[in-house]
Amino acid sequence: MNFRPFLILLALIWPLCASANQADRKQSELDALKQRLQTLQQEFRNTQANRQEAADELRQSERSISSAVRQLRQLDDERQRAQTDLQALAQQADATEVRIRAQQAHLAQALKAAYQRGQGDALKLILNGADPNQAARDLRYLTHLSRAQHETIEALRADLAQLAALQQQTEQKSAELTRLQMDREAEQKKLLADKRAREQVLQKLSVQIQKQQREISNLKRDERSLTQLVERLNRLMAQQAAREAARARAAQRAQKSQKTEKSAASQPRRGLGVNTETPVAFRSDKPFSGLKGSLRLPVAGELMNRFGAQREGGGVSWKGLFIRAAEGTVVKAIAAGQVVFSEWLRGFGNLIIVDHGEGYMSLYSNNESLYKQVGERVQPGDPIATVGNSGGQPDAGLYFEMRHQSRPVNPLLWVK
Q1: Collapsing DSSP states into helix, strand and coil, what is residue 365?
Q2: Could you count the other beta carbons within 10 Å of the beta carbon of residue 93?
Q3: Which of 193, 208, 301, 340 has the greatest count of CB atoms below 10 A from its CB?
Q4: Which carries the bigger pLDDT value, residue 62 or residue 291?
Q5: Nearest residue to 296 (alpha-carbon basis) of 279, 316, 272, 313
Q6: Residues 368, 308 within the same domain
Q7: CA 326, CA 323: separation in Å to the nearest integer?
């Protein structure tokens, strides 16, 4: 509730207050304002409770999104392997068909040659009265020919059976691809549903945060106004009209100044610079401390703050960099290390921490999804997450910190 217009009006009519009854009436108004202050304080506590509930809902929704994205990536890998197997089966089937056609042609040629010789069976060779030695040689030739034809037929049967088996495997792989595709579509639908649920939670949380900020601002302003009102009521009859008019003009100037400040605050926040280079794979025998000045920031985007500068609205200073980037942009590891934390954390959303040794760690927060789990090794340039605005962050981007022995260090001193 804004009492400033009320105070301005009160300052204008104070010179007309010439009796104790009027002062008593102002005291009654003060009591009413105090009662309203107590009501606002209770509403503030209720807002804090609602914010806690919305934050819990946000955590569950963002965990679901992270899991769905990770499973969708695994399905894509399985589908790629199935396609590779299917191509290999197709190549085997083509080779088998070529071999079968060659065997069929060879067998047809052998049968044709046998027919042209008049079948040349062993009984005919014995009874035609030919030279016995020649007949023996012809019999051996026919025996070898018959055995070769039999082996050709058996090989043909084996290849036909193999072709049938390959065709069956091809059908099975095709069915597997179809199943994987259906699973992928189901995962996509689940991801979209989780995103919609997350957007609803974020909207609810944003409204509650704005309400809380308004309530805090109003409470502070009303407390100051009430204190000033009590002091002025105690010296109503002693003040001169000129001083009252001066106070009214001062209040109007203060109101105009406040409007100017609100107008300036409504302007969109601009960045301090733009990062265009991201980590790439490299190998180095140096310890992490030897890489200072040669690293790259984990994502391309707009740098929104300076390390060590005070945050908007006062309070703690920036211990890292907020890089504004499009949602879904890949976040890359700045150097080799091991994942020691990969989970949702209040105030940071989906957070992943990589230990680089020598007491150095890098922190990547406000992500949409986390690709790596605790214990996994990462190399420079490895995708480890995707950009989001988890944890209640109003803008999509990555909040990035570097720490040595748990103390924050300026990341810009470590990059090219």
Answers
A1: strand
A2: 17
A3: 301
A4: 291
A5: 279
A6: yes
A7: 10
Cβ distance 43 to 215 under 8 Å? yes
**Which of 201, 232, 267 corresponds to the end of one domain?**
267
**Domain final position from 267, 290, 307:** 267
pLDDT digits (tens, 9 = 90+) for 167-187: 788 788 778 878 887 887 888
pTM above 0.70, yes or no: no
Chain segment 116-140, per-residue pLDDT in tens: 655 445 555 555 555 667 666 766 7
119 and 82 part of one domain: yes
Domain residues for the domain of 342 are 273-413
Q: Domain of 285: which CATH number?
A: 2.70.70.10
Number of domains in the chain: 2
**Confidence class for position 388, pLDDT limits 50, 70, 90:** very high
Q: Is 260 helix (H, G, I), strand (E, B) or coil?
A: helix
* Same domain as 243, residue 312: no
Look at residue 128 in the predicted model and tell me its pLDDT: 59
Say yes or no: 298 and 231 in one domain: no
For residue 326, the cross-strand partners are: none
Q: Tell whether the model's pLDDT for residue 109 goes beyond 50.
A: yes
**CATH classification of the domain holding 174:** 1.10.287.2610
Q: What is the pLDDT of residue 260?
A: 46
| Distance between CA atoms of residues 73 and 75, nearest Å | 5
317 or 199, greater pLDDT = 317
Rg (CA), the chain: 42
- Give the model confidence (pLDDT) of 8-18 as tens digits: 444 444 454 55
Residue 264 pLDDT class (50, 70, 90 cuts): very low
Q: CA dihedral defined by 135, 140, 141, 146, rounded to 10 degrees?
A: 120
Q: Which long-range CB contacts under 8 A does 406-409 form with residues at least 24 apart? A: 408/307, 408/319, 408/320
**How many Cβ atoms sit within 10 Å of the Cβ of residue 253?**
10
Distance CA 333, CA 354 (A): 8
Regarding whether 281 and 260 lie in a shared domain, the answer is no
User: Both 248 and 306 in a single domain?
Assistant: no
List, in sequence order, every beta strand (DSSP E) within 346-396.
349-357, 360-370, 377-378, 383-387
Would residue 397 be called left, alpha or beta, if left means φ above 0 and alpha means ψ between -120 and 50 degrees?
left
Residues 161 and 290 in one domain: no
End-to-end CA distance of the chain: 51
Over residues 200-218, mean pLDDT: 71
351 CB neighbour count, 10 Å cutoff: 22
Give, in degrees to the nearest 5, the angle at Cα 408 between 404 and 410: 100
